[in-house]
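Because showing beats explaining, we let one protein speak, sequence and backbone structure tokens together, and leave readers to judge.
___
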Amino acid sequence: MSNENENPPPSMPPAPGQEGYNAPPQQCQPQMPSYYQQPAQPQGTFDNLIPTKNPSALIAYYLGVFSIVCGILAPFALGLGIKGLNDIKKQPGLPGKAHAMVGIIAGAIFTLLYAVLFVIIVLAFVNRPHYQ
């Protein structure tokens, strides 16, 4: 018999990624029961409800709502709502368009309403009868 037909023993084991390489068995990671895991939320759900990345729109919304009671807040709601919409135009995809619109609409309505009310009060005070 001749040694020519036999394969010589390999001098080094094959490197990872080469033919003949056997990967070590993967170890099992312990799995938490499903009731311990947090459900995955879609990206941006919270930002659509409360636009924390667009504070102008958020503040305009709250000022517009509170201007029902305190009319001095209405012009600020109008201004911040416009600023919030301009921020959205500069950065497409920024949340808060509905909040900015509520601030603009409520700010405009209550600014006009309280301005008319102020004029009526001033005219009523100026035109009151003078008794002597």
